[in-house]
Structure formats: structure tokens, C-alpha cells
Amino acid sequence: MPASPLSASAYEILGVTVDATPDAVRRAYRLRLRETHPDTGGDSALFIRVQQAWELIGDAEARAAYDRATGLGAPEEPVVVRHEAAASTRPRARSYGQPGGWRRERYLVLAREWAGRGVELPDPYAAAFVRSAPRELRRMLADALAEEETARIVSGLGMGYTVWHDVAADAVDPEDKLDHVVLGPSGLYGLLSEDYGEPVGFRRGEITGPHVDGAPVTQLVSRVRAVARAARVRFSGAIVVLPDDHLADAVTEFGTVRGIRVAVSSRSGLGTVLRRGLVGAREMGGTELFDVRTRLQQAVRFV
After folding, report:
1. Of 147, 182, 191, 233, which has the fewest Cβ atoms less than 10 A away?
2. 3-class SS string, 12-34
């Protein structure tokens, strides 16, 4: 599969079908190069993706390998690999809850509904099945994978940190949740892990893009405030975590939104952000850290 269930295939980027002839692929590549070249007003990010797509399917050997790896040539073989944290002897952060658990369960329910009643569900993680599913279904799986990847990153912060996953922010709506709550010497942070399938922009303190639903920053801040009230704690900030190739910069800080410091971070930059804290955020230590951890342990509910 591509890096994300939402990612366009090399064929889609070039605008050809999977059974296109080599000549058709070559013509499409040259056309897409002209259309996306920055010197003629094209999108530089898309220009790079077009070149990468050509590298994947531009010659017979590379194309065959790509087809095998993605299931486009042999759909029964590849699968979307389930995330498994790499074994490590280093001390890990304390962790509670199941990262991505609610979204994975929801994905499986929706996958069965989409496949149809009375129909045996094929491997729901098979490349061909995921690729053919509606976008909202693929988005559910992509977000589950995003949450699992963030969990892997924050678990590596070390024993000085405590992490809660899939924390309920609303007693009724399970979707109204904080994907992660991270407590450490740099402060207390609420995290939202997302995957929109493509690069995003920013406008007036919000994330923008063709597939960005609603107002994710506003929603995240509201959830942080709800958990803060329930646990009687003060959060140092709120962070939206996105895949590296979604962002032009590793970290973008928005300042304060409704009293909460807010930032958008790439996955690769998240560890550094959580170790140093956001600009202007209050650090924690000693008895305060212990008290906040105790309050959260008593108040946190998982979805």
C-alpha cells in the first residue's frame, strides 16, 4: 500500500489506469510535468510527487515491483500492515489505553457494513479491499494508523512521561475524544493525530485543505478544555500531529487559542516538541507533576 490508506497511487498521480501501456504512462508523465512545474505556475509539492510516481512505474521492472507491493497487480498478497512497536530495552513512558483502538473497531464495523450483509468479509486490511473502499472508510483506518504511530513516538520519550490514549472528552459522543494526553517535565499536552492524505495549509489559526473536515484546531482546544475541567488540571498546550509530507515546516506554533497554546507538528518533530515544550508554556516538576498525574488517573475515561 502507499504510505497512507488515503494516499493516491502512482497511477492516480499521473492520471492513468493500472493497465495503461508504457507509452501512455510516459506521455502522461510528461504532461503532468508541464502542468505541475513551478516555473509555469504549478504546485511544487505535486511536481515532486509526479517525479516520484514516475520512478515507481516508469520502467517495467520498477512497475512490476510497485504493483506487487501495492496489490495493484496481485491484490490477494499485500496487506496494510498493523502497527507493532519495535522491541526496545530503553525505559518507556507509562502508557494507558489503546491508541487507535476506537477507530480500528469502528473501521471494522463500517467495513462489514460496506461489504454487505450476508457477504463474508475479506481481509479488511488487504490492499485491494482498502483501495476500493469509500474515502470515509479509508480515512478511519488512516487515522487509526496515525494514532498508533504517534503512540510509538511518545512511548519513546522515556520513563519521565505518562501517556493516556483515546481519552473521552464527552460522556455521550465517542468521537469527541483526545487521541493522546501526554504529561512530562515540559508540561501537559493534548494531542490530535490526523492524516488528511495530502499537504495542508493554515488560515487564521486553523488547518485548511480540500479534505480537512470542520475546524480541527477549535475541536482539539474544546476537548482539551473539557478534560481539564473534568480532571481539575491545567494543560500547557494542544498539538495536532500530521505526517511529515503534509507540512512545509516541522512545527508551526499558532500562539494561544482560548487560553491554550496550540501548535501543529510533524511526526518526526513531535519528540523534540514534547521534550522542550511550546513557547510560553509552563513546565511542570516535582509535586505538581505527581499531583496532575494522580488527578488524571482518577478522572480519565477511555472511549
Report:
1. 233
2. HHHCCCCCCCHHHHHHHHHHHHH
Q: Residue 180: in which H helix or E strand, if any?
A: strand 177-184
Q: What's the CA gap between 68 and 285, in Å, rounded?
A: 51
Query: Is 216 in the same domain as 265?
Result: yes
Give CA separation, 174 vs 9, 24, 189, 223, in Å: 32, 47, 20, 12
Describe the crossing of helices 101-115 and 135-155 by its angle, rounded to 10 degrees: 160
Please give the helix or strand (H or E) that residue 142 lies within, else none.
helix 135-155
CA atoms within 13 A on the CB side of 105: 8
**pTM confidence score:** 0.79
- Give the per-residue pLDDT at 1: 41
Residues 52 and 199 occupy one common structural domain: no
Q: Which residue has the higher pLDDT, 255 or 65?
A: 255
Same-domain pairing of 184 and 282: yes
